[in-house]
Design brief:
Layout lengths: L3 H6 L13 H5 L17 H6 L8 E5 L8 H6 L15 H13 L11 H4 L2 H7 L8 E11 L2 E5 L3 H4 L1 E3 L5 E3 L7 H15 L2 H12 L20 H9 L30 E2 L5 E2 L3 H12 L25 H13 L11 H12 L16 E3 L7 H6 L12 H4 L7 E3 L21 H4 L35 H11 L3
Antiparallel strand pairs: 1-2, 2-3, 4-5, 6-7, 8-9
Helix pairs in contact: 5-13, 9-10, 9-11, 12-13, 14-18
């Protein structure tokens, strides 16, 4: 039984908490798409608040098979269901941040997506997928949840599933660019389902999933390839997506984006690689979280924009949950940096200054928080006045920002902070390490990317950002050493 106080809180804003889906704020939230006539129409404020609020239950750690405490599963089955998020108990800023951690780790799905209950208890699955395990034996990308006594469910697809990184020493970094190999895990599950089940049903399932990425208004939409590809080729496309990259909502299985690092996100003026969402205050970040986790499913484009939203079978975060989540994410800090600012790094800082890197990657944030037009896109005059645009172009592969639902025609200038623990790099995660990024060979058509290679696995150039490629080897090594201290 859900306490009446929690039901009441689902439709009430505590003083000082922004109203997430205020129509006027939602209307100005996003940068128009490169083809503005097909910019998304979002669910109305009234319909949004009719969507039932997600109940956040107490959850428990998942352990790798050989690290699970004796009797742990039996102990879990004896636990009572417990609602973990109660805004009426939150009195201090620290209380809200702690509650935000609950929201960050709270599952949004109880069915197998990247993996299921059987997979997290199968040692072979870890070996084949490469899913990392923390030093304490936990798997920080999922949680065990009890919604009914005696019934143990594996919950996934919370913020933690994609935005958690396990470092080489087993340290867990919440909010970092994640390294759960989710797409590879999902592909392994599909391959097994095809092997032991009906391949035709598996193929139909993948093609249905891929339809969400299609852009009917794009004459040469690459996403339509999924409807004619073989089952093996589609599964191989998922297996080709490395940790740190994922075919998330509104992107593409052929142009999957790098997972962003959320540490320091409170200082970013634009969210997503294409700068789609503007962040003017904490309310915008709350709206962004609600969009990417839930209500993007209700977006309508072009001729479909006038159709009513179907909010059945949906849940959403309450305004209080989103506020706590935002405060928690804003509170996150990077792990201790093992790279010290030595003489080599000092020389690299001088190279950074003399090469003009600070014009775009301006200290102390190491980004100027501006947008750069992609090749093939000419910014409209009104956007030149309203947006923080740069006049330069850097030649980055424009497909992601012209051929996905996040396609504004721009790429934002990314921050360089935390590059020592991040990777792979570039908006599609094409290069695994900084050394690869500063290798001029990546511009050649016969280059084999060290990160995301592409669905076909063939050689291709990693275009754009020629800055630093022509530096002498000693300067290049020094620059990389400096960047790893940030």
């Amino acid at each position: 039984m859900i306490p009446f106080a929690l039901l009441l809180a689902a439709s009430w804003n505590a003083p000082g908490i922004p109203r997430t889906w205020k129509q006027s704020d939602v209307a100005s939230l996003e940068v128009p798409l490169a083809n503005p006539g097909f910019s998304p129409a979002h669910v109305s404020e009234q319909d949004y608040y009719w969507i039932p609020v997600r109940i956040i239950y107490k959850s428990y750690p998942v352990y790798a098979p050989d690290r699970e405490p004796s009797g742990y599963m039996d102990w879990l089955r004896r636990q009572e269901p417990e609602i973990a998020f109660d805004p009426n108990r939150l009195k201090t800023h620290k209380d809200w941040v702690s509650a935000g951690a609950l929201v960050f780790n709270a599952p949004t799905s109880y069915g197998p997506v990247f993996f299921g209950a059987a997979e997290v208890r199968d040692a072979e699955f870890y070996r084949r997928s490469g899913m990392p395990v923390a030093s304490d034996g936990t798997v920080p990308f999922a949680r065990w949840v009890i919604r009914r006594k005696g019934e143990l469910e594996l919950g996934t697809m919370g913020c933690n599933t994609c935005h958690t990184r396990v470092l080489a020493n087993g340290t867990v970094v919440p909010g970092a660019q994640g390294n759960n190999p989710g797409d590879r895990e999902g592909a392994l599950m599909l391959r097994r389902a095809a092997q032991f089940g009906d391949p035709a049903k598996v193929l139909a399932r993948i093609r249905m999933f891929a339809r969400q990425f299609e852009m009917p208004w794009l004459g040469d939409d690459p996403n339509r390839r999924a409807q004619t590809m073989s089952l093996d080729d589609l599964i191989a496309a998922g297996e080709a997506i490395p940790p740190g990259v994922t075919a998330r909502s509104n992107t593409s299985i052929f142009l999957p984006p790098q997972i962003p690092d959320l540490i320091g996100v409170e200082h970013r003026h634009y969210l997503d690689h294409t700068g789609l969402v503007r962040q003017r205050d904490i309310g915008d970040f709350m709206r962004y979280c609600s969009l990417v986790q839930d209500v993007f499913k209700l977006d309508r484009y072009g001729d479909a924009a006038s159709q009513p939203s179907d909010t059945s079978h949906m849940e959403r975060y309450s305004d209080e949950q989103l506020y706590a989540l935002a405060l928690y994410v804003y509170s996150l800090r990077p792990p201790e940096n093992p790279n010290h600012f030595d003489a080599t790094a000092k020389r690299g800082e001088i190279v950074f200054e003399h090469a003009g890197c600070a014009a775009c990657h301006t200290p102390q944030l190491y980004t100027n928080n501006r947008l750069i037009p992609a090749d093939g896109f000419n910014p409209p005059e009104d956007q030149k006045q309203r947006l923080d645009l740069m006049e330069i172009r850097v030649g980055t592969d424009p497909r992601y920002t012209l051929q996905t639902h996040k396609g504004t025609g721009y790429y934002k200038v990314p921050s360089l902070k935390g590059v020592w623990y991040r990777g792979p790099f570039e908006h599609n995660g094409s290069v695994l390490a900084l050394e690869d990024w500063f290798d001029p060979a990546r511009l050649r058509d016969d280059y084999v990317p060290t990160g995301f290679k592409g669905a076909d696995g063939r050689a291709r150039s990693v275009k754009g950002h020629r800055y630093g490629l022509d530096l002498p080897p000693e300067d290049k090594r020094a620059l990389i050493a400096f960047l790893r201290t940030l």
